[in-house]
UniProtKB/TrEMBL annotation, chain A:
Residue ranges the record marks as coiled coil: none
Protein name in the entry: Acyl carrier protein
PROSITE patterns, A to Z: CARRIER (PS50075)
Pfam families found in the cross-reference section: PP-binding
Residue ranges of domain Carrier in the record: 1-80
Annotated InterPro entries: ACP-like_sf (IPR036736), PP-bd_ACP (IPR009081)
Automatic annotation (TrEMBL), chain B:
Top-rank taxon: Bacteria
Stretches assigned to the Peripheral subunit-binding (PSBD) domain: 109-146
Protein's recorded name: Dihydrolipoamide acetyltransferase component of pyruvate dehydrogenase complex
Cofactor(s), by name: (R)-lipoate
Species, as recorded: Sulfurisoma sediminicola
EC class name: transferase
Amino acid sequence: MNESEIRAVVLATLLSIAPEVETDDLRGDRPLRSQVDLDSMDWLNFLLGLNKRLKVEIPEADYARLVTLDDVVAYLMKKLGIGP
Amino acid sequence: MIEFKLPSLGADMDEGTLLEWKVGVGDTVKKGQVVAVVDTSKAAVDVECWQEGSVGELLAEVGQKMPVGTVMAKLLEPGETAETIVGTPRVLPAGRAGATAAAPPPRRMISPAARKHAQEKGVDLDKVTGSGPHGAVTLEDVEHAAAGLAPPAAVLPAADKAGEMRRAIAAAMARSKREIPHYYVAEDIPLVKALAWLQAGNAKRPMAERLLPAVLLFKAVAVALKRYPELNGYWRDGGFVPAERINLGVAISLRQGGLIAPALLNADAKPLTQLMQELTDLVRRTRAGSLRSSEMSEATITVTNLGDQGSQAVFGVIYPPQVALVGFGRVTERPWAENGELKALPMVTASLSADHRVSDGHRGALFLRELADLLQRPEDLDR
């Protein structure tokens, strides 16, 4: 799995929770939750969706580091042992 | 003979449209069984029946819009037979054209209005798919067939639905502000202990079973209410009626706008893990449009939690006929003075909007103090 494939999984997971999102309009370097209306339950379901799709365990202590889309993708790549 | 009527599903619902019958004539109905799906201004709701019997007659047609209290079906009590109820006058809202025949006829069921309309339009009734009970052909079926359309789906288009929900919220909230003399109190509550306890517990739980802070806040409200029954109940017929159970109406916003506040039933008596599962399920079903009628009608108080994307505090509008609403703002780190020292602590502002006809600000303030104290002993809330 490469970076763009992981990003696609992240966006698909996001769309399953917030189907109204225009993914082309999302800025990867801006806080995701300032661009998409996700409440605490949505956010939990988003992370759970990533956990299910990618089999990555995300400790609660790491939640605070996952701010932007780029953060999420980089975090998952590291967890999956991909990339630089 | 038992009349099964369309129940009220909240102050902002005075009519509903039957989407589907979940039972047929002759079926046995158990207490609490879902018998119909009804579309309201806010959501499609699974309507439960709280009496037992067997279905004698289905009076409401799929697609029919009817006011709350309309007799939708007749149930036979044990020992009764269908003959007992034949000939009972049908109860249908005024202005509704036609209905299916009362007794099961040997031929296909076609409503008189549908038959007349089919003749006028030259529609072949044999080719029309009936969407009514037992495949009965309704007026709408014929209208759709005449227009060359698919059978009717009684659900409104999204834009109409949003407008209808806005009007329903407007009606309930205007009534609240017109009738209920609100008073408001607020309390800043340190959450250091509560969040540390949650984090320690969550570190040991699999992802799917971790608790959100909201669950702990809801449980604390439910437990605190046990000592303040004057905040948990209804204002009815000029007086306060305390509720026997503590059912928290949880305000859940919808992605397309608007909100619904279905109930977490008996929230004071459930451990946190169960409450979290039920909350997750409630949010999912609220957004998917599959709530049960008891969840829509049995909330005894409402809690609104703005969560981590919200404002620091919220002062809510009471949902009539309830008499109180508890609001939680966003958890943020704030300065807090204690024993002559200034610290930065995670805090939440809890507010209470309450009906002054039933309680006074002093009791309201004591309730919030109790809530704050409970949240300093989070382990005691998990039982």
